[in-house]
């Protein structure tokens, strides 16, 4: 009873964790940049200007130009669309399939639980890059195949998170009351278990979003992600590696874009965890 008033007091002193504020601001900058790129970029992304190739950052080209004279800022703006879209859809695939699997495993137990978890172990044995190689060997490289590879890698992550949290909730009094009332396990999972997992799943989604950005960049770096002429941060890094000595901005700018995006999403995930679990803030 003595600890009960502490929660509102803690919330009133620090309603929003600093990491969430900073991470949200960085993420918002990236998202807004990607949205602006739908209607405006400083230059046409595919416009080639050999006379202006490898121009250092200037007022005309704030991020410089590449070996074809294309504006790097414009390419990064459009590349943000690709990175965010791939990561978002991949996380959606992982959560959309993994969460129901985790809830089912926790609710059914027995051989169902064993089958789901051993399937998870099988998928975990193949990293996203290896999955992408296998998929592109059959269907060819591209953004869609990168989404499938990253999405498949996310499925066991969400399955484990949902199952682990749901297992603890199945022993709660309100769940036992629902079972006594005659509700099916599926209905209990949807009405009582899932709503209590949402905060945890949101935090995990933010973390996997950051992982998806890095995975997409890595796949594009080795030529398995978005294909030309679609700009991609990872492919920009790959193209810059032979020119980093005399045109370092070609690697610095897309690398900085990846860093800011991943940092923003990671801080947002950490801040959301603190927001949903005030005990973490009190411990800090």
> Which structural class do the helices and strands define?
mainly alpha
Supply the CATH superfamily name: MetI-like
- Strand percentage lies at under 5%
- Number of DSSP E strands: 0
Major β-sheet, in short? Answer: none
CATH architectural name: Orthogonal Bundle
* Alpha-carbon Rg, integer: 23 Å
Termini separation: 22 Å
Q: Would you identify the regions where 5 or more consecutive residues have pLDDT less than 50? A: 1-12
Q: Assign a percent range to the helix content.
A: over 70%
- The CATH topology annotation reads as MetI-like fold
**Mean pLDDT across all amino acids:** 88
Tell me the number of helical segments per DSSP (H or I, 4 or more residues long): 11
Give the tally of structural domains: 1
Assembly state here?
A: single chain
CATH class label: Mainly Alpha
Please provide the ordered H/E string of secondary-structure elements.
HHHHHHHHHHH
Gross morphology: elongated
Topology diagram in text:
Elements: H1 6-13, H2 18-36, H3 72-108, H4 110-124, H5 128-139, H6 143-169, H7 173-180, H8 185-221, H9 233-240, H10 249-276, H11 278-283
How does this model look, in words?
The chain is mainly α. It has a single domain, classed as MetI-like (MetI-like fold, Orthogonal Bundle). 72% of the residues lie in helices and 0% in strands. The protein is elongated.
Highlighted features:
284 residues; mainly alpha; MetI-like fold; 11 helices; 72% helix; 0% strand
Task: Offer a concise description of the structure.
The protein is mainly alpha-helical and 284 residues long. It is 72% helix and 0% strand.
